[in-house]
Amino acid sequence: MRQNNTQRVAVDIGGTFVDAITFNRDTGEVNLEKAATTPEQPSNGVLNSIDKVNVNLSDTEAFVHGTTLGLNAVLERDGARTGIITNEGFSDVYEIARTNLERDSMYDINYQKPESMVPRRRRLGVPGRLNSDGSVVEEIDEGAVEDAATELVEDHDVDSIAICFLHSYQNDQHEQTAADVVRNAYPDVSVSVSSDITGEYREYERTSTAVMDGYIKPIFENYVDTLDAALADEGFDESFFITRSGGGTLTAESAKAAPVHTILSGPAGGLIGASHVGDVTGRDDLITVDMGGTSLDAAVIEDGSPVVKYDSTLEHQPMLIPVYDIRTIGAGGGSIAWLDGDLLKVGPESAGADPGPICYNNGGTEPTVTDAALALGFLDPADFLGGEMDTAEQAAIDGIKSKLANPLDTTVEDASSGVLDVALANTVGAIREITVEKGLDPRDFSMVAYGGAGPMFVPLVARELGVDEVLVPQAPSVFSAWGMLMADVVYDFSQTHIAVLSDVDLDTLNEAFTDLEADGRDTLSTEGISEDRQTLERTVEMRYHGQEHTVEVNADGIEDLDELADRFETQHETRYGHTMDDPVQVVHLRVRAIGENDKPSLDRQEASDGTLQPSDTREAYCFAEDGFREFDVYERATLAPGDELEGPAVVTEPTTSLVFHSDQFATIDEYGHIVVTTEDEQ
Fold first, then answer.
1. Taking a C-beta distance cutoff of 8 angstroms, is the pair 368, 348 a contact?
2. Is-contact 446 275, C-beta < 8 A?
């Protein structure tokens, strides 16, 4: 990197807005802006946001990006036409899918299995076999691989091929040979190889992960290449990073090689930021709620670290990659409110950025959560996006009246409050999935509210769940982008190593870890991370013999296997409330390689002088009193540590508004965060 470059830029694309934030590591100055998402050409929205934040890319040392491009392709079933090459006789593994039935549909007599992303005619088997220890039983038939590739490309017009062979987690020789054959025959076709993505067992899950990667790869590669070229045209020639779904970042080139690792990269930024805020403010246990224009993402941070899953699912498709445990529902500001008979529903369909909610005055005709919030007085029609966007308040009210209130024979007020009630119920259900259903009491957590609509909505969620406090950080509407600035470079390496712990030799275990760590150091060094900024973390996934699921155990600094067993039993009892007498089994070894980046700091601010007064008042709907009341209005820029605000009140800033009600109270902490509590909890 050039020594005179001191600026870092992060950009997060959502379904409705693109958030940009800059950080100058010399001055500590942070600037932020929002621009509309451009669905037809997403890179245009990124460039527009960079223009608005007025940054000189030629003086920028790093560009960090979070995108839901891959996620949206899967959700909308708009990915690449994908084929599978696997072992002969195993082409149906992907569709058989362990014959699992989705839990929510277990008793649904009308259940229809979702259509496969790769139909049978595009799943081909070839001769060649390894046994369970990775030894070659039958050599791979390279001619058959080329014939399979020809059939997939020439007859079925695939854009991408996923390759997954039995036991390749032990020996990737056959997969790599097949990949070379396909690439030589069809260099323009994307190839996703399971052993390049995960080194773990379970054939179906590895196949599904490779398919997911192949499904988004051509789209992702094209997007990254287009954006990279556009950034270069603006003078940027330094490090381009993409946020990972399981935390940290990786280079854009590495992301192109395995884009499945970025499938939840946008929401991950917010968790990284919330974890840092929690660490600074002494809050180890947090529930994060990111409410944007299209969706709402909820996640849990326990003991200072976001919960990571290694066996996550997306649209009922398993993925064997590290992913933050995030629940996403269609309950964003742009989520459409509609009637199913006499039943009011919200989402999952969204008005998005184009045409957007009715109040955007851009051709939208369906009422949304944002329209309801405007009708309830939570938003100022004359000061939307800091006055940059003209809003059609009356059109929004008329839309709610004609589409919701009149058919339900009720008032606009009741229909609008009902929209938020339904969105609230959906959100509470999602949060209970990641707390109550895992033995956690949400009342033991603080909540962090961010996203463009989060500060407006999350105080309602806290009231419903009985959560003590809601923390609204600085710049909440671009908080995920801010979190991306806090991200280090991270790579994960894993290896399946199934053995009963009593049969494991510590030296053998350390040797396997050393090999994974060498891969980690080599990768970080290749990315330009100096050795003094590299950290390696060891973990082992363990279980009692006969169990299906595993517990992740910290393996750093263990001196003997008894210590590892003790750590496992402590972790198992913490999670499940008991231990067992069965033998303990090692399943997976993992190494996380971390390269430290420079980050913005959270600085203490000057205390209030005690003269704070509301800048205005306005009528808005108070959910504590079920009716319109006079709300005090404050400008966030005027707040300082020590200020206290009684509800009901609205706190405005250019890109979002905090709304809390008559049974709630807010204080400003030493870092300028707003902390909302309820009267009963003070």
1. no
2. no
pLDDT band at residue 334 using 50, 70 and 90 as cut-offs = confident
CA distance 185 to 656: 53
- Tokens matching residue 658: 């905090």
Cα 156 to the chain's mean position, in Å?
33
pLDDT for 34 = 84
Phi first, then psi, for residue 137 (nearest 5°) are -95, -40
| Tokens standing for residue 214 | 């192949």
CA neighbor of 448 nearest in space, from 422, 469, 417: 469
- Measured CA to CA, the distance from residue 637 to residue 652 in angstroms comes to 9
> What is the C-alpha to C-alpha distance for residues 633 and 616, in angstroms, rounded to an integer?
5
Instruction: Give the pLDDT of residue 681.
Output: 46
The partner residues of 544 in beta bridges, in order of sequence, read: 584
**CA dihedral of residues 189, 190, 194, 199 (deg, nearest 10):** 140
Alpha helices in 252-329 (DSSP H): 252-257, 265-281
The stretches of 263-321 forming alpha helices (DSSP H) are 265-281
C-alpha 220: how far from chain center: 16
CB 551 within 8 A of CB 543: yes
Q: Which two tokens stand for residue 132?
A: 């369970």
DSSP structural state of residue 163: E
Whether the upstream peptide bond of residue 348 has omega within 30° of 0, thus cis, is yes
Cβ neighbour number for residue 510 with a 10 Å cutoff: 14
Q: What are the residues facing 12 on neighbouring strands?
A: 19, 66
Predicted model pTM? 0.84
pLDDT of 2 higher than 60: no
Q: Under a CB-based contact definition with an 8 Å cutoff, are residues 246 and 321 in contact?
A: yes
Rounded CA separation 575/251 (Å)? 35
Contacts of 497 (CB under 8 A, 6+ apart): 509, 512, 586, 587, 588, 589
Residue 355: asked if its preceding bond is cis (omega within 30°), the reply is yes
What the block records as the tokens of 218 is 């051509």
Q: How far is residue 326 CA from its own chain's centroid?
A: 6
Q: In this structure, what token pair is assigned to residue 90?
A: 């195993």
Q: Are 459 and 481 within 8 A, CB to CB?
A: no
Mean pLDDT value across residues 483-493? 90
pLDDT at 4 over 60: no
User: Which residues touch 584 (CB under 8 Å, ≥6 apart)?
Assistant: 500, 501, 502, 542, 543, 544, 545, 565, 568, 569
Cα separation, 462 vs 457, in Å, equals 9
Helical (H) or strand (E) element with 53? helix 42-53
Residue 199's pLDDT band, with cuts at 50, 70 and 90, is confident
pLDDT tens digits, one per residue of 17-63: 888 999 887 777 788 888 888 888 888 999 999 998 888 888 898 89
Residues near 306 by beta carbon (within 8 Å), at least 6 away in sequence: 247, 271, 272, 274, 275, 299, 300, 324, 325
List the alpha helices (DSSP H) in 167-246.
173-185, 194-197, 203-233
How far from 240 is each of 8, 259, 285, 328, 361, CA to CA, in Å? 10, 14, 32, 27, 36
